[in-house]
Amino acid sequence: METLYNKHKILISNVSLRIVRDVMNKISWDKQLVGIRGSRGVGKTTLMRQYIRQKYGTRAGEALYCVMDSMYFTNHTLLDLAEHFHQMGGKHLFLDEVHKYPTWSKEVKEIIDLWPDMKVTFTGSSLLQILNADADLSRRVLSYEMAGLSFREYLRFYKGIELPSYSLDEILAESDFICDSVCKVCTPLPLFNEYLRVGYYPFYDGNEVEYYSRIENVISFIIDQELTLFCGVEPAYTRKLKAMLLYLSENLPYEVNIAKLASYLEINKTTVLSYLSFMDRAELVKLLYTDNKSVTKMQKPDKIYIHNTNMLCALGTQTNIGTLRECFVVNQLSNNHVVEYGKSNGDFKVDGKIIFEVGGRDKSFEQIANIKDSYILADSMEHPIGKKLPLWIVGLLY
User: pLDDT by residue (tens digit) across 286-334?
Assistant: First the structure.
């Protein structure tokens, strides 16, 4: 225990409180069981440590922070730790990367049953199964999904520019006011182009080569470690998954031909569909369908995108601007909205009713003329012209 207390003090003392993401205030940290899931690299660990430092200070006492792949757990159980912690007056146990502890769900369930006055907060992979884990915690846990930085958060983190977030309804109804407000404090277009390259993950330090290398490491970790752990992918097939991701990045936006993809990878079509589903859950790609309500388990997606623009750039392909635009829109809107492939009616349908066409400054309304609730998201614009809105404005959603 003393070892964990010392590690707690070191790790919590070293976390910076200079910038704290808004999601901090959206999490009900005082609930008995809270789970924060998200892809590797989006900042879950930092957020948890920041909260502990703000709420409890740097010394372990009422709170204890544990990384679940710590050597301590090679000869101690989580349940034993919780018992000792509770006996010493502990109130709030923070478990980072809980999926690295094999029997986490069973022991967490027992902890909250045995000591109802103890709170447990954990972080885990976006692939972490709460509903179908060994002990079903779905009715007890308050679960949150954490994304990478929005364009608005990038401006705050890296440029010191404070802007409010807006709902999609506010963006559509008040785009003139919003764009005027943004343009008073910055010139958005060059900053937006920078965000598309290096703004999604909160670990950019000014060196693009090193940044992309870290993203490649994130991709490799998800495929080599998390997909084998959570999805049962055989280690021998991880190279196929990497080849698939690279192939998709070179052919985006990918109009899906499962037979062609299966032939290229030398695997069967059923396996391709399974792999695509795993990669979507792992936030490596985003699968779009024309009707989300009727999607079946092994249904072919209508379009595939790499999860975010920085990952797309890191894969080293000659990415055209059209692909970056659409990838950005899908990524930002998918965080809080249902995005479907528009097919013949625009590029995307959002929440089953709003149609978006994405393009350059000269994009016309020809493809969505006379369609109710239809808009153009256009690049290289600072201000809206009617229902043609600047592309970057959807980066203010969170």
Answer: 999 998 777 776 789 999 999 999 999 999 766 789 999 999 999 999 9
pTM above 0.85, yes or no: yes
Confidence band for 254, pLDDT divided at 50, 70 and 90? low
- Residue pair 44/24 in contact (Cβ under 8 Å)? The answer is no
Judged by phi (left if over 0) then psi (alpha if -120 to 50, else beta), residue 13 lies in alpha
d(CA 43, CA 175): 30
In the chain the domains, ranked by start, together with CATH numbers, are 2-146 (3.40.50.300), 152-396 (no CATH)
Distance CA 374, CA 105 (A): 45
At residue 322, what are phi and psi to the nearest 5 degrees? -60, -40
Q: Residue 312 class from Cβ within 10 Å (0-12 exposed, 13-18 middle, 19+ buried)?
A: buried
Identify residue 220 by its one-letter amino acid code. S
Name the percent of the chain lying above pLDDT 70.
97
The dihedrals phi and psi of 390, each to the nearest 5 degrees, come to -60, 135
The answer to whether the beta carbons of residues 174 and 145 sit under 8 Å apart is no
**Which CA distances in Å does 279 have to 266, 272, 320?**
18, 10, 23
* Cβ-based neighbours of 300, under 8 Å, separated by 6 or more: 256, 258, 273
Rounded-to-integer distance, Cα 318 and Cα 37, Å: 32
As a whole number of Å, the CA-based R_g of the chain is: 22
Q: Cis ω on the peptide bond leading into residue 116 (within 30° of 0)?
A: no
